[in-house]
Specification:
The protein is of the alpha+beta class. It has helices at about 60-70, 95-105, 120-135, 160-170, 180, 185-200, 235-240, 255-270, 315-325, 395-400, 410, and strands at about 10-20, 30-40, 45-55, 75-80, 110-120, 140-145, 155, 160, 245-250, 280-285, 340-345, 350-355, 360-370, 370-375, 380-385, 430-435, 440-445, 450-455, 460-470, 475-485, 505-510, 515-520, 525-530, 560-565, 570-575, 580.
Length: about 575
């Protein structure tokens, strides 16, 4: 996917720093403008691309130069309370400011009245917020790698993510981002290890590194409740009225992929078949991590194949082409052949379908047994996982850097560790089931599901499920994963329910990450189910009280008994061979 600079052969990119954007409450936001002027023509009013960021608008300089050369006015804005913008920052609360800024920008002489939004991660979350408010000047949105609060930015399956939120909240504490501190992974490994080892109530972490309580961190220290994050995502009613072209971009290795796909699916669900009709909402899932680049890892053979996505400018190029289409100035980008467009690693090409569900032609169901995985139901049997909150052996390995960072490769582009799925490090708190070596290749494309029947005398526990590919030479490739706190087994949007003592419960793990990859003959599949016991997550003491209030005094060891029959099964989506395909 090359960069198309056609039509801007000779231009000078210019920048204006510190433009003031007034809001209705008297607050002023600060912004930088980027635009280009050609040698033979004065600058005319242009459509504007706007991004709202808490990370310092100067970090958008590369994007500004790109979009300026592509024929747009690019405007990077510091969120309220961040950088040079006035007011007080509030987590996930940018929608109203963003909508006002869009309308203000449309009235400026440099803008032709048409505004588009751009940005990734946090700047993808707030694109959904501004789109939900439907400012009249907004023409299209392109949220990239956008987490969904309550699903994958701060919690996974109702489990608090220390490694994903405590360091992030420190990054945005105050007005200036702390990039030097956030980049020191050894420091944060030690911080997360201390949090996990001491197991103090999570509310005490607000003062972990700051002289004053970190207001950004406070919301994620409470007991998990999806209701606490409803304000941060569009409602069903807002999505139903959202008649706006939206391009969602995420990656197979992006730890925000679950949220990015959910935004798209919920938008589709609310407007499908209505007056707005199909064809205005697109999802792209590339072979990349959260940063937009394709990971290169000695642990993953597939990541060494094909054309690498060497920078996130491939996303900017796709957005620019999408914007021109939304403005009525160009055909739809060739990559967007259908509403869902996914890159299949190993096959090294894109596939296209009207929905995520339609990516797969068939589903392969596997039933765990004590001796491995079989493709047919078995008689009732049991397998046991022990959960001991005081067993620190795996956490000690993480703290010492002896095993890989559980979340590392997904969010920061570092090599993805599969150590937590290694049976050597289960310490009795995990199980692995392997298929026989495949006699013919399989191509996964879609969302795996895992249904368990489980009983325990513990009121609560945490479980992590992982799907891996085992290569004949011993290497392992992470394909997908999911996590669940058992008290949330009825769903993340329903009230928690403790486990009834000894009574079997049948439930499904929450949404898995989409997997799209070829698995060659000779490889095996591995399903891992284990207690996380990881410093990356809040520590579960298996007690009845909210986990955020638990201490070491609440530690309760016990056993989780899996009933291995028809009620416990892993279902894998297989690529539809008839789907349209395109080259990378």
């Amino acid at each position: 996917m090359g960069l198309n600079m056609e039509g801007v052969t000779s231009c000078e990119v210019r920048c204006r720093i510190g433009v003031s954007i007034p809001l209705d409450d008297g607050t002023h936001l600060k912004a930088d403008y980027w635009w280009s002027e050609t040698d033979d023509a004065p600058r005319a009013a242009q459509p504007a691309v706007m991004t709202f960021t808490p990370y310092g608008r100067d970090r958008c300089a590369d994007n500004g130069q790109f979009f300026a050369r592509a024929g747009f006015l690019f405007v990077a804005v510091d969120c309220r309370g961040r950088g040079e913008s006035g007011g007080t920052y509030a987590l996930y609360a940018d929608g109203d400011d963003y909508a006002q800024a869009v309308q203000w920008l449309a009235s400026q002489p440099q803008c032709d009245g048409r505004v588009l939004t751009q940005g990734g991660s946090y700047a993808g979350i707030n694109q959904w917020q501004v789109a939900a408010r439907r400012p009249a000047a907004l023409v299209a949105a392109a949220p990239m790698v956008a987490p969904m609060p309550g699903w994958d930015s701060d919690y996974s399956g109702g489990i608090g993510r220390n490694a994903a939120m405590i360091d992030w909240a420190t990054l945005v504490q105050g007005r200036s981002p702390k990039w030097g501190l956030i980049a020191d992974r050894g420091f944060w490994r030690a911080v997360n290890a201390r949090i996990w080892r001491e197991a103090q109530p999570r509310a005490t972490l607000a003062n972990l590194l700051t002289a004053q309580p970190n207001a950004t961190l406070l919301p994620v220290l409470r007991p998990f409740s999806r209701a606490d994050w409803i304000y941060a995502v569009p409602t069903a009613e807002q999505l139903a009225q959202l008649d706006l072209p939206v391009l969602s971009i995420t990656g197979l290795h992006d730890d925000a992929q679950v949220g990015a796909v959910l935004y798209h699916e919920q938008h589709e669900q609310q407007v499908q078949g209505g007056a707005r009709g199909p064809g205005r909402r697109y999802l792209v899932v590339g072979p990349c991590v959260h940063a937009g680049t394709r990971p290169i890892s000695p642990h993953d053979d597939e990541q060494l194949e094909g054309v690498a996505l060497v920078s996130d400018l491939w996303q900017d190029q796709l957005c620019a082409d999408f914007y021109r289409h939304a403005l009525g100035e160009a055909q739809r980008p060739a990559l967007l052949q259908d509403r869902v467009n996914v890159f299949v690693t190993g096959l090294e090409h894109w596939v296209h379908a009207p929905s995520v569900e339609a990516l797969s032609r068939d589903r392969l169901t596997l039933y765990p047994t004590p001796n491995g995985l079989a493709d047919q139901a078995v008689t009732e049997q049991q397998a046991t996982i022990h959960s001991d909150p005081l067993d620190t052996r795996f956490a000690d390995l993480e703290a010492a850097g002896s095993v890989g960072w559980t979340l590392g490769g997904l969010s920061c582009g570092q090599p993805l560790s599969t150590d937590f799925a290694d049976e050597r490090w289960f310490f009795g708190q995990g199980l692995a089931w392997d298929t026989p070596a495949l006699t013919e290749p399989l191509t996964l494309c879609g969302l795996p599901t895992l249904r368990l029947t489980l009983s325990t005398d513990l009121p609560d526990a945490d479980l992590m499920a992982c799907l891996l590919k085992l290569l004949p030479d011993g290497r392992r490739v992470m394909l997908s994963s999911s996590m669940l706190r058992l008290r949330h087994r009825d769903g993340l949007s329903t009230p928690p329910r403790l486990m009834p003592p000894g009574e079997p419960q049948t439930f499904e793990f929450p949404r898995w990450r989409l997997s799209a990859t070829r698995i060659d003959a000779g490889c095996r599949l591995r399903l891992v189910l284990r207690v996380p016991a990881s410093i990356d997550f809040e520590r579960q003491m298996n007690a009845a009280k909210p986990v955020s209030d638990q201490t070491l005094a609440d530690a309760t060891p016990g056993a989780l008994r899996l009933h291995l029959g028809a009620g416990t099964r892993l279902t894998l989506p297989l690529l539809d061979a008839d789907l349209p395909r395109s080259a990378p």
